[in-house]
Design a protein that fits this description.
OB fold (Dihydrolipoamide Acetyltransferase, E2P), 4 domains, conserved putative lor/sdh protein from methanococcus maripaludis s2 fold, Elongation Factor Tu (Ef-tu), domain 3, alpha+beta, 38% strand, rod-shaped, single chain
């Protein structure tokens, strides 16, 4: 009986000791108790609200600046007799791109010459009428009739001159026609903008119309980065926001700028909003149609956030060490947003009252792993 009592007493003492032992600390692999030396290497921060920006990654491409492009055609109907440029060639404003022969131009020059001759005839008729009126041979009404005919001839001459200008003749060429009366059926297609030939749709001997697009000249010193922002993210964007463009063709080269345009409507088929930014391309390295990724920074938002250095990656998931007592920290899985200027927005699993390890989380995690192996 005494043996039994001693045995029970011994069992009771053992049970009381187990209650006082830190069983949870021994069994929880995510709980770490630091040494004084390690504690000095840690920096703690309280989870708090900070001003952040939403960063939206949108696939896009490089486009020609539509304000720096000229679609060039012939001013008259004619047959191409000479082409002076090739695709990709740089040209200056006013440079001749092609030459054509036009019977339409010749016919209008002939009408102009006849209109000038008519002016001469009508002018002489008015002068004769003035002499006859002074001699009382004709009445004033006859002089007025001839003056009206002269005014009409002048109006017709001005109209034919305007038509020649529409057909591409310069002031110097018209003056030469007035002086010599020599008809030239040759017309030129000239560059209305200095830049690069990015399209050529004409060949020798081809008959062209004024509505035909023969060349496209683009000034590539500036280009556009364009993208389509999903409708659900449209609230985060507006004109003037800071943007970074990554160009994979140049090893994800980054170029910073601002949005110069945000579409006013949503595309009903893609449910997206068009955006674009201007890029300085003075070195001509950026080519139209290159792929690009646009990183758009939204307006500042107040978000619960933690330092990015506090994050520990385990099993492809983000974790942080949360202080649970003096010199005690527990590794906790958390859901975080993309980093912005060294901070990660908290999506869930942390509250504003939590205190976490910001500096030294790596060393703390190493000690936790060593503890697992013991």
């Amino acid at each position: 009986m005494m043996f039994s009592a001693l045995t029970l007493a011994g069992c009771g003492n053992g049970k009381d000791k187990s209650k006082n032992m830190p069983v949870k600390a021994m069994n929880d692999p995510n709980l770490v108790k630091t040494t004084p030396e390690l504690e000095q290497r840690l920096k703690l921060v309280r989870v708090s609200n900070v001003e952040m920006r939403e960063i939206i990654r949108i696939p896009g491409s490089i486009s020609v600046d539509e304000q720096r492009i000229a679609r060039i055609g012939a001013a008259v109907v004619g047959r191409i007799t000479d082409i002076n440029v090739i695709l990709g060639q740089n040209v200056k404003k006013g440079e001749v791109l092609a030459t054509l022969n036009s019977t339409e131009l010749a016919q209008n020059q002939l009408v102009f010459i006849k209109a000038r001759q008519q002016i001469q005839l009508q002018t002489k008729a008015v002068e004769r009428a003035q002499l006859l009126l002074n001699a009382d041979v004709i009445g004033a009404a006859e002089l007025q009739r001839r003056e009206v005919e002269l005014a009409g001839a002048k109006a017709e001459l001005n109209a034919t001159r305007d038509q020649l200008e529409v057909l591409g003749m310069s002031d110097n060429a018209i003056a030469e026609l007035e002086r010599t009366n020599n008809i030239r059926s040759v017309s030129t297609v000239t560059a209305r903008l200095g830049g690069t030939i990015i399209s050529r749709k004409v060949n020798l001997g081809q008959v062209v119309q004024p509505a035909d697009e023969l060349f496209i000249v683009a000034d590539l010193s500036h280009v556009w980065a364009v993208a389509e922002v999903p409708e659900r993210q449209a609230e985060f964007i507006q004109k003037g926001l800071e943007v970074t463009v990554e160009i994979p063709a140049y090893g994800d080269k980054q170029i910073s700028g601002k949005l110069i345009y945000v579409g006013e409507t949503v595309d009903p088929l893609t449910r997206t909003v068009s955006v674009r930014m201007d890029l300085n391309n003075s070195d001509k390295l950026i080519k139209p149609e290159m792929l690009a990724t646009m990183l758009i920074r939204s307006n500042p938002l107040t978000r619960l956030a933690i330092p990015a250095e506090a994050v520990v990656r385990e099993d492809n998931q983000d974790h942080v060490f949360v202080q649970v007592g003096p010199n005690q920290y527990r590794l906790r899985p958390v859901k975080l947003g993309p980093a912005y200027e060294g901070m990660r927005p908290v999506l869930s699993d942390l509250v504003e009252t939590d205190t976490i390890v910001s500096t030294g989380a790596f060393h703390l995690n190493s000690q936790r792993k060593v503890k697992e192996l013991e």
